[in-house]
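Below is our example:
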Amino acid sequence: MHGPAVSGWLLMALCAVTGAYCLSRSRTGTGEERRTARAEALMGFGMAAMAVPAAVVAPPAWGWAGYAVLFGAAALRALWFARHSGHHLHHLVGSSAMVYMAVVMARSGGAAHGGHASHTMAVAGGVPLLTGLLLAYYAAYVLRSGARLIPVAVTADAAGGPAAGPLATGWGARPELALACRLTMGIAMFAMLLAL
């Protein structure tokens, strides 16, 4: 997760901005939408904190355990709310991936690739099996989310005008921005897992 300093800072900034937008979304919408936005804000800020280059700001020894506990609790919360919404299953995978990365980093003492040496199950290229599965999940998630952002033709009503419907107002009520944030965090998670 802690590769070159410039890419680490860019990843940190991207995740922090995404987390801030998700936090702003948590003030509008239904209870479920606010709950989802809060979970996504936690993920964005947590990813930002984990992406800070270790050469510049080394996390304390207990920091990785703190991440594991925090995201372990987030995973349990996502599991609880998954009974209401399937999107919380994605939050469960994301929180579990953060726990996994924190454990690997704690074992390696914070070195980016040292943790892989202790894994016993690896796929052909030396990548641990769980890392490979998470990379495959996030690659598929990013492709699916990106495809959902592709604009579709506007339908017309019977009179030939554009379809009437409620217009989203405010930054928090823009579904395409929420989807773009999810896409951004999926790409960031893929990059963090790749650098693990």
Summary: The mean pLDDT is 80. The two ends are 5 Å apart (CA to CA). The chain has six helices and no strands. The CA atoms of residues 108 and 115 lie 4 Å apart.
